[in-house]
Amino acid sequence: MAENQEGASSEGNPAADMYPKKILEYMEGFLISKTVFSSCELGVFDVLLAAERPLSAEEISQAIGASLDGTERLLAACAGLQLLNTHRDNGPVCYSNTEQASVYLTRSSPVSLYQSIQYSSRTIYLCWHYLTDAVREGRNQYEKAFGVSSNDLFQALYRSDEEMVKFMQLMNSIWNICGKDVVTAFDLSPFKIICDLGGCSGALAKQCTSAYPECTVTIFDLPKVVCTSREHFVTEANQRITFHEGDFFKDPLPEADLYILARILHDWTDERCIELLTRVYNACKPGGAVLLVEALLHEDGSGPVTVQLYSLNMLVQTEGRERTAAQYAALLTAAGFSGTQHRLTGKIYDAVLGHKET
């Protein structure tokens, strides 16, 4: 045995010859995120979209009001990340947006992720600075990150009018991309009266009225959210979308055929989820249903890795967690719903449907 060990040593430790590529990529992952965040915040992609031609680093630096050296480095990184195209003629290197950058990273695009990126950079990123504390303490980190009490989740989430609008813009951008898939995962056409609990900006309500022309949708949310939604997101032209102000844990819920809870239950403990779902069950018409829109974990919890990371984000920011389809079914059953089904959309968010018997 000693000879074998000496032989292995003379040939070198195999571990010393390994290259930890994935670990290094993970260590540097935040560098990529902040490169994208800062490029959006500075308006790099907007400038290139407006120019309608490739621009040099000097032209871009002047347009965004930044140093030439810093801009050159930022543009080179964006090109390396395949967010920008490079053009090398006889003069200096010039840059243009890739198709995905024009579609998702410019402010004017109808499916822009710009606002979502800003929220990630200025809110989520700061909370994640305290991930170690969140794991140790088992609670969210709003107090350390922003100096506000986290006893009331939405008081922390909506700690200022500006922060509330940013959060609503985040949700708006997500449902503009993923909303159609979740509202068509099941055929919801039998449900004519729909209540979107915590409907926020109304983006998902708009997807419902687009997919199901015979339905009407009531957005139930806090008074200040309703006010902001009316002012910034839902115009009077959306005649099939109405509002109902209230706290869904305290106030009576409007009667409906279908209730949508999109990215709501993942904010709360199991006990609070059952409390809310029981209120929904009691308000729901016989033969009605509830649609949960969530990012579903595999049943053994082994993935997807994005959802596992989202669950850590729930630890940092909320009282809740991401769950499996079976765990959501158990919550629905505890509240009285039956016949639970789920559908995977192939995108970030999936759908779970529970029924109230006639």
From TrEMBL:
PANTHER family for this protein: O-METHYLTRANSFERASE CICE, PUTATIVE (AFU_ORTHOLOGUE AFUA_4G14580)-RELATED
Biological process annotations from GO: melatonin biosynthetic process; methylation
Pfam families given in the database record: Dimerisation, Methyltransf_2
Name by which UniProt lists this protein: Acetylserotonin O-methyltransferase
Any one GO molecular function term: acetylserotonin O-methyltransferase activity
UniProt enzyme class: transferase
Lineage summary: Eukaryota, Metazoa, Chordata, Craniata, Vertebrata
Domain O-methyltransferase dimerisation: 24-106
